[in-house]
Structure formats: C-alpha cells, structure tokens
Specification:
Helix content: 40-55%
CATH architecture of the largest domain: 3-Layer(aba) Sandwich
Number of domains: 2
Strand order of the largest sheet: 3-2-1-4-5-6
Order of helices and strands: EHHHHHEHEHEHEEH
Largest sheet: 6 strands, parallel
Structural class: alpha/beta
Distance between the termini: 10 Å
Number of helices: 9
Shape: globular
CATH topology of the largest domain: Rossmann fold
Strand content: 5-15%
C-alpha cells in the first residue's frame, strides 16, 4: 500500500537534543561546561529516555517536562555540576528553543509539496513541542503535532502509535514513521508502520523482535523513501 502519511519523532529526529548543552557551553557564564557539555548532553538524554520507559511500565505517568528536568538533575550530578541553579535554568530554557537539524525544513517542504500528510508524534508535552516547532519555524509544513499526553503513556506503547490512524484515518501500512531512536523505530515497525531509523551516531541495531526497514544517516532521502 502506498505511503500517504509521514510521521516524525521530535527529539533527536527533527530537533537536536544536544543543542541546549552545546549552546550553554559557548556562553561565558558557564565555562565549566566547555569540557563536559557532550557528556552532560548524553547523560541527560539517556536518563530522559530511561525515565519514560520506567514510568510507562510502572504506570507512573507524568509529563515530559518533569521527566526532562529529572534527567537533567541526574546528569548535572553525574558530571559534578549540580548546585548551580543558574546553569540548570539556562539549560532548561534552551530546551524550549532546540535547533532543528539543517535538512529538516527542506525535507518537510518537499513532503508537503508532494501531497503527504506530515506530523510529529512525540513523548513531548504539547507546550514543549509547540515551543520547539515555533523556534524551528516548521509549523507551516506540519499538519499536526501529536503528543503522548492525550493517552497518558510514553512510547513505544501501541496506544501512542494509534494516534496516527485516529488523526489521519490511515492504516499502519500507509505510514512512514521516522525516528532517531532505534527502539522507537523498532516498536513502530512491530506496530505495522514502515519505519526509518535515522542513525546519526552509527550505532548498532537494537536486538529486538523487530527492525526498521530503512537505516539512514540523515533525513535528506525521506521524500524519496515515501515514494517507494
């Protein structure tokens, strides 16, 4: 069945989650970040994801902003940077203004010009996603921004992937789902989506029952993949 709908994870896929730490490290107020920002960004992202999984399986849902703050607190302590409220606040403020990867605007514009539905499907809270979309100026090339908050559980629960069909009236076979998270691409493949894993870091494929149909290093070829 032909693809009609292209759906994207947000953080790490469209938006660079390392940007907050990288930008803060370039500011003179936070010289302690210059040598540790990459480590901090990695710890922050990993804990953010781990907390979503743990909250999902223990039915202890909260919004993604709280998870983001909790992950940052762990990362700051792990890097010996806790106890600096100004640094913590600056990093959180920058998370509302994450940079999109360079190829994102043109890629989404090409999909819309070709007639595809386009959407974000994210763990992010609606307010966080709205901030990121506005900061990246990509709202005009998205038909919708879908958040897990409408079902109260994080990915890869099937109820999250259900949101796509409910919104666009399409079958899973009509959806190209794109994520930078291998586990998310695998979960979506198990759900029935055609999936593309944007493996920017060149990581091994996750050992899970499902694998993404496509593995990419960036998003440039997504319009061609959608054509089949």
């Amino acid at each position: 069945m032909a693809i009609t709908t292209c759906v994207f994870d947000a953080y790490g896929t469209l938006f660079d989650v390392s940007a907050a730490a990288r930008l803060a490290a370039a500011e003179p107020e936070f010289p302690q970040l210059q040598s540790t920002w990459a480590e901090l960004a990695n710890h922050w992202r990993l804990k953010q994801l781990q907390y979503t999984w743990l909250r999902a399986i223990t039915h202890a849902h909260t919004d993604f902003w709280e998870v983001t703050g909790d992950g940052l607190d762990w990362a700051l302590e792990a890097c010996g940077l806790s106890g600096n409220p100004a640094l913590r606040q600056r990093l959180l403020d920058l998370y509302w203004e994450l940079q999109a990867y360079p190829e994102v605007p043109a890629m989404l514009t090409a999909l819309k010009a070709a007639g595809y539905n386009t959407a974000i499907l994210s763990n992010g809270s609606p307010a966080m996603l709205d901030g990121a979309v506005k900061s990246a100026d990509i709202g005009a090339v998205l038909d919708d921004v879908l958040s897990v908050e409408s079902v109260g559980i994080f990915k890869p629960d099937a109820r999250v992937y259900d949101l796509v069909g409910q919104r666009f009236g399409c079958t899973p076979a009509e959806v190209l789902f794109v994520s930078s998270n291998g586990w998310d691409a695998a979960g979506a493949a198990g759900y029935g989506f055609t999936t593309a894993w944007v493996n920017r870091a060149g990581e091994p494929v996750d050992r899970l029952p499902w694998v993404p149909q496509h593995i990419l290093s960036d998003l440039i070829s997504i319009p061609d993949l959608a054509k089949g």
